Amino acid sequence: MLNKDEIKKIIPQREPFLMIDEVESYIPGDCAVAYKYVDENEWYFKGHFPKDPIMPGVLITESLAQTGAIAILSLEENQGKNALFGGINKLKFKKIVRPGDKLKLEVKIINKKGPIGIGEVIATVDGVLAAKGELTFAVVDK
Questions:
Q1: If DSSP codes are grouped into helix, strand and coil, which group holds residue 24?
Q2: Secondary structure letter of residue 76 according to DSSP
Q3: Handedness of CA 97, 61, 118, 7 (dihedral sign)
């Protein structure tokens, strides 16, 4: 299990844009499982939507991307680098994510060639599918 301080040693994101709270497990270059505890005080709920708070799909996507970055940037040859979006494919949102939800984020790297790769991503809340798709990433020097 990795806490936020340990996560920050692997990926460059910081508050308020660090979108994962803990990492349950990871295998460098292969997969990662992380969690986002969706708190009612999150900055984005002030405007999305004040009387009906919903975690934006783009931030669910970012949470999944950061989880994938744990798997990719924990590889010895990628330490100290950054992972950027190269594409978002087949991503579908199936469940509204609200304050109080524990968002489970799972990423499996399904293809990798040089600095480019694809991760199969799944987000769930209490075992119910919230989002599923593929994210393409590019590993770059900072």
A1: strand
A2: G
A3: negative
Distances (CA, A) of 71 to 25, 49, 86, 104: 9, 32, 16, 15
Residues in the chain: 142
CATH of 4-140, one of 3.40.50.300, 3.40.50.720, 3.10.129.10, 3.40.640.10: 3.10.129.10
Q: Which residues pair with 27 in a beta bridge?
A: 31
Q: Which two tokens stand for residue 98?
A: 């609200």
Place of tokens 């270059």: 29
The residues annotated as belonging to the active site are 48
Per-residue pLDDT of 42-100, as tens digits, reads: 999 999 999 999 999 999 999 999 999 999 999 999 999 999 999 999 999 999 999 99
83 contacts 141 by C-beta, under 8 angstroms: no
